[in-house]
Amino acid sequence: MNDYYPFINTPLPYACDALEPFIDEKTMHLHHDRHLQTYIDNLNRFLEENPALQEYSLEELLILWRRLPCHLQAPLRNNAGGVYNHRFYFDGMRSAPSPAGTDSPLTRAMARQFGSPENFRSQFREAALSVFGSGYAWLVSDNGQLRIVTSSNQNTPVLNFRTLILNIDVWEHAYYLKHYNLRAAYIDDWFRVVNWAEAENRFSSGRHRESSPLF
Ligand code: MN
Questions:
Q1: Is 108 left (phi over 0), alpha (psi -120 to 50) or beta?
Q2: Is the pLDDT of residue 207 over 80?
Q3: What's the pLDDT tens digit per position in 62-72?
């Protein structure tokens, strides 16, 4: 992972056509190589102009933007968020089927919180559908409690939750070529390519970090 300036567009962890037929090759190509690249280029340009911020990691930048002068806040929030959110989204998918474990810590937490995997799925789907305009739906953990939250544009829940488990990008560029305006169909297809092993890792490692300050 490339977490410090200068940021580079690390390759997808799978081929662009690996998520077919659920998410199409052209969408993945444009999404990673153009949309994410633009956020990376803009973030690098911003940090080039603000060298005092170059020592911070991507995650630290997502925390400290609020302490900066007003005119620096939006460009940093939008571009650092765009890099972080997209990497998190791409890494949260995989081509090979990755069923949720039946007796893993995350599965047990989901059963406690939502009653069943189906209930989780239906609540997450509703949340992703409810994002007005562009943004993301997230599965996060707060003191061991799972929660489903949404964010607008390239905002992230990093400020409020130490453990982020999954996100779905519901900007139209994530699905319009294949699913047109049918966000619900895209969400259902996204569920077919969720990387549950990665979600488990994020849940477990995040739980260990929750009690320590970020910096
Ligand atoms: Mn996107």
A1: alpha
A2: no
A3: 999 999 999 99
Cα–ligand 1 centroid distance for 83 (angstroms): 9
160 or 28, greater pLDDT: 28
Distance, in Å, from the CA atom of 185 to the CA atom of 23, rounded to the nearest integer, reads 11
pLDDT score of 211 = 63
Model pLDDT, residue 101:
67
Q: What backbone phi and psi angles, to 5 degrees, belong to 44?
A: -60, -40
Long-range contacts of 131-137 (CB under 8 A, 24+ apart): 131/170, 134/170, 134/171, 134/172, 135/170, 135/171, 136/85, 136/89, 136/167, 136/168, 136/169, 136/170, 137/167, 137/168, 137/170
CA of 195 to the centre of ligand 1 (A): 18
Q: What is the distance in A from the centroid of ligand 1 to the CA of 86?
A: 6
Q: Is the pTM of this model over 0.90?
A: yes
Residue type, 101: G
Q: How far is the CA of 54 from the centre of ligand 1 (A)?
A: 24
pLDDT value of residue 58: 97
Residue 192, token pair as written in the block: 């077919």
Q: How far apart, in Å, are the Cα atoms of 37 and each of 19, 140, 148, 177, 198?
A: 20, 26, 28, 19, 23
